[in-house]
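Changelog excerpt

This revision adds worked examples to the README so contributors can see how folded entries look when concatenated. The first example is reproduced verbatim below.
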Amino acid sequence: MSDYNDNTGQWHSAYMAKTKGMTDEELRYVIEDCHNAMHAMPSNPKCGQYADEAHYCAMELRRRTMELRHAKQKRHERIHHKFEVSAIHAKYRRVLNDIHEEAKLSLTALVKDKPHVVEDKLDRIAGMTEQLISDSLVADTKRKMEDSNA
C-alpha cells in the first residue's frame, strides 16, 4: 500500500478497496479505534489519516446496508408481483366465466328470434374480451420490465 502522505491519492483508493474485504466487526472496530486515537491525541499528525480510515469504513458499512435493503425491497416486489398476478388470474377466470354466461344467453336469445338482444350481448362479450386482452398485455409488460430489472 502506498504512503498516506505521498499526495498521489493511491492510499485512499487502496484503503477503500481493503475495506471491501473486511468483516462488519472489523470495520466497526477500526471506526472505534480511529475515533479513540483522534480523541486521545488531537494534535497527532496522523489524525487526518485516522479520520479517513474511519470514514471509509463507515462508507463500506453504509454500502452493505443499502445493498441488503435493496435486496429485501426486490424480494418484496417479487412476492407482491406474485400476489398481483394471482389476483389478475382470478379476475380473468371471472371474466371468462362472464363471457361464457353471456354467450349462453346470446344463443338463447338467438333461438328465440331476438337479434337485437344477441347484438347487445355480443357487444358486451367483445368489450369483456378487449378488457381481458388489455389487462393481460399490461401484466405481461410489467412482468417483462421487472424481469429485465432483476
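The second example, added in the same revision:
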Amino acid sequence: MAEFGECEDNSDIVIESLSPLLNKPTFDPQTYAQLSGGEAAGQLCSWLCGVHSLHATLQTKTRPLQSKLSTMQASLGEYTDRLKAQENKIKVLDQRLAGLSVALETASVDKSQQSDLLRAMCREMEHTKRFIEVSSIM
C-alpha cells in the first residue's frame, strides 16, 4: 500500500479490475475471516478495502491538489520571471538616476561659477565705463 498510487496507470487498472469485488455488500473483512476460518482472508480483505479507500482519496483530493500545485508552480515561475525583469528595470533606472543626479550637481556648480564670472565682468565693465567717463572729462 505504501507504493500504491505512485504509478497512476497501474493503480487505476488494479482498482478497476477489483471494483466488482470491492462493491459487493458481502465484501467485508469479518465475513471473509469467518468463511475462511482464519484471519488471513479477513486481513487481505481489509487491506484491499484500504487500498480502495486510498485510491478514492487520491482521485478526489490528492490529484486535484497536485494539478493545482503544478498550475501554481507554473504561475510562480512566470511571476518570478516578471519580477526579475522589473528588478532589472529598477536597477537600470537607479543607475540612470544616479547619473542624472551627478549631471545636475555638475550643472549647478557650473551655473554658480558662471554667475560669479558674470558679476565680476559686470563690475569690470562698470569700472571701465567710469574710467571712460573720467577720461573723457579730463
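Reviewer comment on example two: The radius of gyration is 45 Å. The chain has one domain: 8-105.
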